[in-house]
Amino acid sequence: MLKSTLIKATEAGARVMQSFFQGSFTISNKEGINNLVTEADHASEKAIFEVIKADFPDHYILSEEAGEIIMDSNVKWIIDPIDGTVNFAHGIPLCCVSIAVELDGEMAMGAVYNPFINEFYFAQKGFGASLNDKSIQVSRETSVGKSCLVTGFPYTYLDHPNGPLEVFTRLIRQGVPVRRLGSAAMDLCWVAAGRFDGFYEHKLQAWDSAAGYLIVEEAGGKVTDFKGHPYSPYQPQIVATNGKIHEELLGWINNER
Ligand code: IPD
Ligand code: CA
Ligand code: CA
Known about the structure:
Blueprint: H1 2-20, E1 27-29, E2 36-38, H2 39-55, E3 60-63, E4 67-69, E5 75-83, H3 85-89, E6 96-103, E7 106-114, E8 119-124, E9 129-131, E10 134-135, E11 149-151, H4 164-173, E12 178-179, H5 184-192, E13 198-201, H6 206-218, E14 222-224, E15 238-241, H7 246-253
Parallel strand pairs: 3-5, 11-12, 11-13
Antiparallel strand pairs: 1-2, 3-4, 5-6, 6-7, 7-8, 8-9, 9-10, 13-15, 14-15
Helix pairs in contact: 1-2, 5-6
């Protein structure tokens, strides 16, 4: 039942995204420059909540726009109603719904759906990861020098020592291609699918990464913080790779090479 509710909720949010996409909708600003929220983010969140609450009215919810709905439950839904809102607001089809289910404090399932390119990613702890129901695996690349990486930039905090701009410059100066898609959930799924060899970002929130990190792990990848500790979505830093370039990429990020 959890899995079918997760899929229904993800699809409901994605339908709302499609109904607003490239049309007219209100856009407002949150903290930072160009940290946008649109009418569609709120409408997607509402549609997702309706599905979850119909099946599980007592579950805990953590969602980007509404915040926390605290319940005495061992199940927590972690929701980003649109990841890649700036892309969405500009009619760029690199955006998605991301929903994770945490069970007794452990990530149990994750779903990420980009309806514009028809990619539905799903993972269940211990059961692998899939794209449109076909099993996916991370890449086999063994060196950062030959990798294609992806990162994201937060709306604030850019010039911090060893911050996003410094690390980006360091890698780019080595000639390593580092892409920037504008959706952390898509970034993670594309690592899981073997398109990127690694992803790192300095400042994410739980709803950006909760589903995607499980999808990477279940596709055979490795996800940690910048120190190489096991990943928790409740702290800001993330490094997600195919596993083979992980230690080397940590060295580049921490300027220890
Ligand atoms: C953002 C995206 C972006 C990342 C930002 C996030 P939003 O989420 O995931 O890739 O760099 O840090 O805030 O605001 O589009 O849901
Ligand atoms: Ca997000
Ligand atoms: Ca969002």
